[in-house]
Amino acid sequence: MRTLLPLLALGCAPPPDGATYGKATLPVTDMHLHTGDWALIRGSTQRVLAGNFPFPFGLQPEGLAESVLSAEGVLGELDDAGIGRAGMFAVYAPRSVGVATNAFIDDAATTDPDRLIGFASLSVDDWAREGEAQLEALDTALASPRMRGVKLAHAHQHFRMDDPRYWPIYEIAAAHAAPVYLHTGTSPFPGTQSEAPYTDPAYLEPAIQAHPDTLFILGHLGHDFIEDVTGELDTAVRLAATYENVYLEPSALGSAGSDPEQVFLPEAMEAMREAGVVDRIIYGSDGPQSPGFVGRYLERTLTAMEGAGYTEDEAALALDGNFARAFGLPALERP
Amino acid sequence: MLSLLALAGVALASAPATSASPTTAVLTGASAPGQWDAGVTLGYPWTRVRVQRGLTGGWTPFVEADTALFTRWRPAVGVSLPWIDRRWRLSGEATLGWLEQTGTLAERGPSGSLAIRLGRTRGRVVPYLHAGTEHTLLVDRVRVDTADGVVVEDTARHGWTLTGAMGVGVALGGSWGLDAGLALPWVDVPKPSIPGVHLALQLGGGR
Q: How many CB atoms are closer than 10 A to CB A21?
């Protein structure tokens, strides 16, 4: 039944409900979702993901994971959460989390191109020999009207944030007006790099300065997912306050697993508001992870924003307006 | 649960005593001296087999094996002893076993458990409640390729599962009976678990 619901929704999709914030109902874009083929995810990462499922679903996670990870599954999660549209990330990290190819994402986005927005990526392994070909592939992928951004994860892909050999990626992104999403902070997944040059957004500053036409979205705000402590939040916020081409995305750090006491996400939302960078916040969850995660993360974010005193207009910017402006897309209409 | 127990007690207060029925014996964890009893439980996600034999003094050694979705297995041996044995029986039991979980979340290790079983011993209908705590010593093995070769690191970890079940059994004859109930485990605390359901058959009474 669970897998049928998204299919039914495709035939007669009701308009998304939006999120209730105070007395308002606000449209929401979740810029950070994953889709992919369970079989192409590394075993160690499958273990982490399956561990998020309630017992006994994690014992035989393939079916549930496929239903959640598919484009139809993602749409079902969006519908359940009242979310209007979402970004879906390609991933080329065979040494850590696995691979979701550009072609896979582009094809998945065709399921509902108005609601699913693709982010392309590229392999940086063997860059000296394969770099040119990978850059051409990225350029080709971004030519698709469904691929509107670039996803990079230095910690997962094992390349330094301050290595200028990879800067042509930012130039290609700017040529396509495609913002670049970057995982910052450490990662809980096995096989990832945890040293500062791969995780601390301060190491991105030279690239940010050198590419003013490229939008950099600092994912996870430099959170330390290994020690489960606030990581480089101050640095991420400082970069956004300093550079107009820096945006901030507070996904995953506020999940029930990472933030059971609901400390990190309220702290981050408050820090961003106090620094005056509300116009740079782009909402994301890092779902779907497990059924219902997308909706729960949105609820926790709304709670954090209310606690930090976000006005209705500020919340509307964080939930959709900033995304629309950064990606050159029309803002979602209020339900 | 309390209302269920009360209703069962009122409705069946005059029923004949069946304390030696296999249903009562298996659900309350105590067989009559010299009596063999067995239970087979089928459900989602748990399937379980248990065979026990009563000894003098109330001791009831048993062997059991349970599996969740035929992916998580735990064979064990144990012993049960009634602490209170009147209209209701309260037994305590301890087991030693081995956890073997295959698939994506593969893990294995020795485990032990302590549990109580509460059930009615009068009448054909046997409401029951089981609760326990199960502890497993798990070892995570990480193989790291280094310049000096492969380094294997073993890290011990404690796995904790709270076990629980409630339901109602019916002794349908002197040598067999059935029960239906809910499994209420919390597997690998603090990760979330969902309840399970089961139907079970008890056989025995033989010597």
A: 20
CB B95 within 8 A of CB B87: no
Structure tokens at A109: 């986005």
Give B69→chain A minimum CA distance, Å.
8
Helices (H) and strands (E) counted in chain A, each on its own, are: 15, 11
Stated pTM of the model? 0.76
Rounded to whole angstroms, the Cα distance separating B6 from B4 reads 5
- Give dist(CA A133, CA A123) in Å, integer: 10
Structural domain total, chain B = 1
Using the beta-carbon criterion (under 8 Å), do A56 and B192 form an inter-chain contact? no
CA dihedral A303, A308, A312, A318 (to 10 degrees): -80
What residues contact B69, with CB distance under 8 A and at least 6 apart?
A56, A59, A60, B45
Which class for A281: exposed (0-12), middle (13-18), buried (19 or more C-beta within 10 A)? buried
Residue A60 is nearest to which of B103, B187, B192, comparing CB atoms? B103
Alpha carbons A71 and B142: distance in angstroms, whole number:
34
- Contact at CB, B191 and A50, closer than 8 angstroms: no
**Chain A: nearest CA to B168, how far in angstroms?**
24
What radius of gyration, in Å, describes the C-alpha atoms of chain B?
19
Alpha-carbon distance of A224 to A264, in angstroms, equals: 11
Domains belonging to chain A, first-starting first, are: 24-327 (3.20.20.140)
pLDDT at residue A283, as a whole number: 98
3-class DSSP state for residue A198? helix
Whole-number Å distance between alpha carbons of B165 and B185: 7
Percent of chain B whose pLDDT exceeds 70: 90
Model pLDDT for residues B68-82, shown as the tens digit of each residue: 999 999 999 999 999
Nearest to B69 among A51, A59, A62 (CB): A59
Are the beta carbons of B105 and A58 separated by less than 8 Å? yes
Number of cross-chain residue pairs from A and B with Cβ atoms under 8 Å apart? 49
Residues of chain B with Cβ-Cβ distance to A50 below 8 Å are: 104-105
Minimal CA separation from B108 to chain A, in Å: 14
| pLDDT tens string A129-165 | 999 999 999 999 999 999 999 999 999 999 999 999 9
Interface of B with A (CB under 8 A): 45, 68-69, 71-72, 101, 103-105, 185, 187-188, 191-194, 196
Question: Can you give the residue range of the structural domain that contains B60?
Answer: 2-206
Tell if the CB–CB gap between A58 and B104 is shorter than 8 Å.
Answer: yes
Q: What is the CATH number of the domain that holds B88?
A: 2.40.160.20
- A52: nearest CA partner in chain B: B191
Residues 6+ apart with CB under 8 A from A191: A42, A44, A45, A95, A96, A97, A156
A54, A59, A62 member nearest B105 (Cβ): A59
Predicted complex ipTM: 0.81
